[in-house]
Design brief:
Elements lengths: L14 E2 L5 E2 L5 E2 L4 E4 L6 E3 L5 H8 L12 E5 L2 E4 H12 L7 E5 L5 H9 L4 E6 L5 H4 L8 E3 L10 E7 L8 H11 E12 L15 E2 L2 H10 L2 E7 L6 E8 L14 H31 L6 E4 L3 H9 L6 E5 L9 E2 L2 E4 L10 E4 L6 H6 L10 E4 L1
Parallel strand pairs: 8-9, 8-11, 9-10, 11-12, 16-17, 16-20, 17-19, 20-21
Antiparallel strand pairs: 1-4, 2-3, 4-5, 5-13, 6-7, 12-15, 14-15, 18-19
Helix pairs in contact: 2-3
Amino acid sequence: MKCNICKYPLEAAIFYSQENISITSLCEVYPQKTEVFFCKNCGHSQTTPLSDIDKYYDLSYKILIETEEEDQLYQTIDGHKKYRIDHQVETLLTKVNLPKNAQILDYGCAKSSIFKKLVKIRTDLTPHLFDVSEMYIPFWDKFVHSNNWATYTVKPEWDEYFDLVTSFFALEHVTKPEEMLTTIERLLKPGGVFYGIVPNTYTNIADFIVIDHVNHFSQNSLEVLLKNTGFEAIHIDPESHNGAFIVTAKKRSINKSSSVVSQPSQYAISDLEREVTSIAEYWYNITTKIRYFEAEHSSCKFAAIYGSGFYGTFIATCLENLERVECFIDLSPYRQGKYLLEKPILSPQELNKSTELVYVGLNPQGSSRSIAEIDNWHEYTHEYFYL
C-alpha cells in the first residue's frame, strides 16, 4: 500500500481493530477490520478503505437526511446550544472575503445545509452543488436551480468558473484526495479560493478509528497535498473549529510547477509518528479499561451512556453486558427520540434517578466540563466512567 498523499510505500499497520467489526462516522457497525497506517515521508495516516466504498457513499451514507433542519450539536456553553452549521457559516464568512455576485460550489456537499444558510445571508451569491449520490437532490431542489448541481461527475462548463469551492468534511472519505483537489483546482478561476474542513485526529482521536475516514491528515500532509495540486497562500487553522483543521488556499495564477514538493523535516515526522503511536496505544488499551470498569461494577443493574455519537457507540460495542444499559443520553434534540443499538436516546432530564453508572461517551478533551454543565445531575449519586 502507498500513501494517498505522497505515494511513499507504507510499512505495517500501526493500529488494527481486535475484532472483525468497526464503527463508521454514522455510528453504524461495519463488518470489516480497521487498519491504520502511518507515512514516514509526509506524516499522513490512512485507513484501509471500505470494501464497497463507492456503493456505500452512493446508497448507504445517509447523513442528517431525516429532516431539512437536522443538524449536529457543535457545543453547549452555559446551557446555550450552538449547532455545527451555524458555526461553519460564521467561520467561513470571517475567513473568506467573497466578492459580490460570486459563483460558489460545495463539493461533496450532502444536503448542503451550509450553503442553504449562507445564501440567505449573502443573497448575491450563486450556489452550485456536487456529490457522488442522488439521494440529496430533494434537499437541493428547494434552494438551488437544477442547472446548478451535478452528481457523480462535475460539469465540463464548470472549468475555471468558481470564485470559491468548499469541501466540508469530505476529503477524509476519499481514496484519491489528490484527484479530488486537482479537480477542485481546475474548477476555480485563477486566484480563486479553496476552503475546506477536515477532522484533526490529534484533537479528536475518534477520527483515528472511524473506518470510513480513509485519510487522517496532519498539517504537514495537508500542506503537501495542497502544494502538489496547484495551490498557494495556504493557511491551515487548527483552532477555529473543534476537532478539525480549517484550510484556505488560493489557486495559483500561473501553471503549477511539476517539481517535487519539499517534504517536512524528519524531526517533524518523528514527532507525528510518536503522537499517532500514542493514539493507537490509547485505542488498544481503552477496551480493556472499559471492560475492567464494567467487571468491577458487575452488581450494577442500571447504567446509561452519555453521548450517542462515535464515542458512545464505541463504549457500547466494548461492554460485555449491554443489557445493563437502559439508554443513551444526548443533548441534541435531533438525536433524542431515536434509537441506537436498540436503546432509546433520551435527554439529560429524562435520566432515571435509579441509574447507578453513566459511561461518558464524549471526546476526552472536554467530557468532564460537559458533564459539569448538566444542572439537574448535580443531585444525582451515580458514578461516572470517563474515556
